[in-house]
Amino acid sequence: MITHLNGNLIEKTPTHLVIECGGVGYFVKISLNTFSRITTGISKTIKLFTHLQVKEDSQTLYGFYAVQEREMFRHLISVSGIGANTAMLMLSSLSSDEIANAITSDDVTLIKSVKGIGLKTAQRVIVDLKSKMAKIEFSSENIFSQDNTNKFEALTALSALGFDKTKAEKAINKVVTDEQSVEDLIKAALRIL
Hints:
single chain; CATH 2.40.50.140; 5 strands; DNA polymerase, domain 1
């Protein structure tokens, strides 16, 4: 699986990018939120987190500015009735933070406000993802709204190791610094846990 691309930006539109990596140009579908966060000009280096979808008749690469947006995309496509294009439309209309908050607060109206999402689909999104969002423990300083990928990756790693997300997040908050790698952040948090 292609987890990210790091290369030169060749083409940029609101719906897709072309990124050249090692002489190969990758066509990557993006959301409007990702498009608005890319300030890099053409022929400049860019890093994009990706999700590769393989079907019988196609292979499509979806790109995201932040890991958190990619994770929300993966949650959304796990819901019956939500395909990749609908998930990208949701991420273009609402931020990951807004979607997560709508799911945790049962805000059917906000989810239904996305073009192509009806009442039943909006309810299904909430029912299917509410427990997943609860495990992420969204707080007033929602992890999806933070531009701190290291903190998110450390929290994900500690959760995968079996630590309670709330306790792990508190430990990370106690030890986090600006210039800290993910590995150092995890080690420091483990000393507290």
